[in-house]
Design goal:
The complex is a heterodimer of chains A (about 325) and B (about 450).
Chain A lengths: L2 H8 L7 H13 L1 H17 L5 H13 L4 H17 L5 H18 L16 E6 L6 H14 L4 E6 L6 H12 L3 E3 L6 H14 L4 E6 L7 H17 L6 E7 L5 H12 L4 E5 L9 H9 L3 E5 L7 E3 L2 H9 L6
Parallel strand pairs in A: 1-4, 1-5, 2-3, 2-4, 5-6, 6-7
Antiparallel strand pairs in A: 7-8
Helix pairs in contact in A: 2-13, 3-4, 4-5, 5-6, 7-8, 9-10, 11-12
Chain B lengths: L5 H13 L6 H17 L4 H17 L1 H6 L1 H17 L14 E6 L6 H15 L4 E6 L6 H12 L3 E2 L7 H14 L4 E6 L7 H14 L3 E7 L6 H12 L3 E5 L8 H10 L3 E5 L7 E3 L2 H8 L5 H11 L2 H13 L4 H13 L3 H5 L10 H19 L3 H5 L6 H11 L3 H27 L16
Parallel strand pairs in B: 1-4, 1-5, 2-3, 2-4, 5-6, 6-7
Antiparallel strand pairs in B: 7-8
The chains are: A alpha/beta (about 325), B alpha/beta (about 450).
């Protein structure tokens, strides 16, 4: 009992070290707008009812759906909470809210094994990270932030511009490489992206690169040809560097609705996805889709984009996410 | 698939009623539950869903007497009408100024497709309407955004007004407007940077551009994949900028696009265009009634017809159609038809428009495309006589044809069988046309159709 209390204790300043404080602060600030929509709604609801009843649960259901948690997962959570509240005779609205939020995240925490967020580097040769996603989710920006992160950890990072399709994509990544001061491998516009990826893998080996990040063109998951092309990119990389891509991230925009689950499924079928990066969490969206994705496919979120600064890409931490979504106003 | 499409849900929900002789409160409730889940899974805002369900209930109950006559048809009609209502009624076209440039401003969150849509609008206006277009590059923030716009513009062959990334977007817009006026251009399209609706300084910047250039149209880009929060985005943009329309982007994906429907309903801002592909020509005028048909799984026949009309000479088409209906349909006609369809773009995008087709997977579509190449090879190796009278094909002729096109006898037989099926299907269509109803299951029942 007492998820909220647990979070409050965990994120009280006394308990945290400096680095952790910074990170918690990024979550709290980045998710301010999301929180306003979610936490205040839960709060309002609990204030309007003295005792929970059927309509109370209906309204709870709507709050979860509005957070893009998805219909089937929402119905299941509400159903479980309803049963449990009857069994334990819980009638206090605040306790029910606590219970429902607990259930929302329990599934995430227990589904799948231990999660390591940081990129897992191989002991020898370059580690390759493939970044994929539908159009406009922020792949290139995420790559820049990841490169920044690992350059600052002392790694030799190289970028590879395998988005040869979208106008301006190569230029965009090139500008980032210049700003970050890291090498980049590019091809001609409209050239075969797999051959650019191959060049990238070869150069990364030659230049003793620690981390090669491969950018790919945005593609809608129902376009078979484009998905096959992505599969080919992944296979070509593995030919040059065995076991690569060691990491493959799917970038998902926090504003994404229920189609996010389909995206994750189709991309997972196409390349060996090792995680999700959720971007644009500094908007008003709640990003509930990550719960639905985890529920259906077991894919973990590895990083979360909480703002436009290079340092606003944080390791994903369920407790911090939850704290940022529900309780952040009490921080400091 | 993680969940059923809205069409499938509706079809299943409606099926429950289809077999029953009358509409009762109980079976209505069943169906409405399905409709509710379907709409929520389609990312339609929950408030809109609530209203939608209520409307259908009251309407259906009000028309009970009529319903007894034909319950399923009546429900289809009510759901359809209600969806059209939700999507907005009538076509929403852009209003062009007569004696001065029409100014269009594109706004939206990051990654919704503003720059791509700017290119598509320019293409539409230049190619289809013969207008002189200027693009203004006001996204000075995202790296290479101006490069992107320039590359897109070069493909359409329209000029871009840019002052680089160190200029103020308001100044760029102002100067671009002056240029458009001085050079008597027809349209100025202003591409702005993506921004969060809660980013006060950047929203203020948009407001300033708008005050300065007084756009005729302010169009918000909405991603078809966006979820429940889309309505908050649209509300804020609308309250700050007085939107005149919505462009729904990425509708060629498999997202249901329910969020954009909610926006129309809750803000009253009409959806004017739909982005339906990556090519510059892939921007359609948005038709609410057609969208409703699509949601209901009735196919988007009107769009298909229009697409066909654009590519095919009408007289020619009518002749072929008549021939098809008359059963006077040769292998040549079949090949001709198939070539025309190929010309219209990818088959997969057309398939979506055909009624009764929603369940066909992408794999199957590719298969169909392969099949078509097979037919072409076989028919091309025939003599004109054989193409017109395939019944004369005996074994020796088949062996010759097989050698000619590098296929097997079995391949040729498959083509012939397909032809027979198509011919039979056409005859059947004619009968249905006479009786005034569609074949059960739409055209999906015509397995022999090569497209």
């Amino acid at each position: 009992m007492g998820l909220f209390k647990f979070l409050k204790d965990k994120f009280s300043k006394k308990e945290e070290n400096k680095v952790e404080q910074e990170s918690t602060k990024t979550y709290v600030q980045g998710m301010e707008k999301s929180r306003k929509n979610f936490a205040s709604k839960l709060d309002n609801l609990s204030k309007r009812y003295k005792e929970v009843n059927a309509t109370y649960f209906e309204e709870l259901e709507e709050i979860l759906i509005e957070a893009d948690v998805g219909v089937s997962l929402t119905l299941r959570i509400i159903d479980e909470a309803l049963t449990e509240s009857k069994e334990k005779n819980i009638k206090e609205p605040k306790e029910i809210n606590d219970l429902v939020v607990d259930k929302m995240f329990l599934g995430y925490a227990t589904n799948g094994g231990n999660i390591v967020n940081e990129i897992r580097f191989v002991s020898e040769g370059p580690t390759v990270l493939l970044v994929a996603g539908v159009n406009g989710v922020g792949k290139t920006t995420t790559i820049a932030k990841l490169a920044y992160r690992y350059i600052h950890q002392g790694k030799k990072v190289m970028l590879c511009a395998a988005d040869t399709f979208r106008a301006g994509a190569i230029e965009q990544l090139t500008i980032w490489a210049e700003r970050l001061g890291c090498p980049i491998v590019t091809g001609k516009p409209e050239s075969d992206p797999a051959s650019v990826a191959f060049d990238g893998a070869r150069k990364a080996k030659e230049e003793n690169i620690d981390l090669l990040i491969v950018d790919t063109a945005g593609r809608l998951q129902n376009k078979t040809n484009l998905m096959n092309e992505l599969g080919k990119i992944s296979r070509v990389i593995s030919k040059e560097i065995s076991g690569a891509p060691h990491e493959a991230f799917l970038v998902i925009d926090a504003t994404t609705g229920q189609n996010g689950v389909v995206q994750a499924k189709e991309f997972k079928d196409c390349v060996p996805l090792t995680g999700i990066v959720i971007t644009k969490m500094d908007g008003t969206s709640k990003g509930g889709i990550i719960l639905a994705i985890r529920d259906e496919l077991g894919l973990p979120v590895r990083f979360i984009g909480l703002g436009e600064k290079m340092t606003d890409l944080e390791e994903f931490d369920l407790d911090k996410y939850l704290y940022g979504l529900c309780l952040g106003d009490e921080y400091e | 698939m993680a969940f059923e499409s809205l069409s499938d849900r509706f079809q299943r929900a409606l099926k429950k009623i289809r077999g029953q002789s009358r509409l009762t409160e109980a079976n209505m409730d069943d169906m409405l539950k399905e409709v509710r889940i379907a709409l929520l899974e389609a990312d339609v805002n929950f408030k809109v869903v609530k209203e939608f369900i209520e409307h259908i209930k009251t309407k259906a109950i009000g028309e009970q007497v009529y319903l007894k006559l034909n319950p399923s048809q009546m429900v289809v009609k009510i759901v359809h009408d209600e969806l059209v209502e939700l999507l907005g009624s009538g076509d929403s076209e852009l209003k062009y100024q007569k004696n001065k440039p029409t100014i269009i401003m594109l706004v939206g969150l990051q990654g919704t497709g503003k720059t791509t849509s700017a290119g598509k609008l320019a293409y539409l206006m230049k190619k289809k309407l013969g207008k002189k277009v200027l693009l203004a590059a006001c996204d000075v923030y995202r790296p290479a955004a101006i490069d992107q716009l320039k590359q897109v513009a070069a493909q359409v062959d329209v000029p871009v007004y840019s002052l680089g990334t160190n200029a103020n977007p308001v100044d760029i817009a102002k100067q671009a407007r002056d240029k458009a006026f001085n050079e008597h251009l027809d349209v100025l399209i202003i591409d702005t940077a993506g921004r969060l609706q809660i980013d006060e300084p950047l929203m203020e910047e948009l407001n300033n551009i708008s005050k300065e250039v007084k756009p005729d149209e302010v169009l918000l880009l909405v991603d078809a994949m966006s979820g429940q929060d889309a309505i908050n985005v649209a509300n804020t943009f609308n309250s700050k900028l007085d939107l005149t329309g919505i462009i729904m982007s990425k509708l060629d994906g498999d997202a249901r696009g329910g969020s954009a429907l909610s926006i129309k309903h809750l803000t009253g801002v009409p959806i004017k265009f739909a982005g339906v592909g990556e090519k510059l020509s892939d921007l359609d005028i948005f038709h609410p009634d057609r969208m409703a048909d699509r949601i209901l799984g009735m196919g988007d026949v009107v769009t298909l017809v229009e697409k066909v009309q654009e590519e095919i000479d009408e007289k020619d088409a009518r002749k072929t159609a008549q021939k098809m209906m008359d059963g006077d349909f040769t292998l040549e006609d079949m090949l001709e038809q198939m070539k025309k369809i190929q010309k219209m773009g990818s088959l997969s995008s057309l398939m979506k428009l055909i009624p009764g087709m929603p369940k066909i997977s992408e794999e199957q579509k590719l298969q169909a495309e392969k099949e078509m190449k097979n037919v072409e090879a076989v028919v091309n190796s025939m003599t004109p006589e054989e193409r017109r009278h395939p019944e004369i094909l005996k074994n020796s002729r088949k062996v010759r044809i097989a050698n000619g096109c590098g296929k097997t006898n079995a391949d040729i037989n498959r083509v012939l069988k397909k032809y027979e099926q198509m011919k039979a299907a056409m005859k059947q269509m004619k009968q249905y046309q006479k009786s005034g109803r569609m074949p059960p299951g739409g055209l999906g029942g015509l397995g022999g159709m090569p497209f």
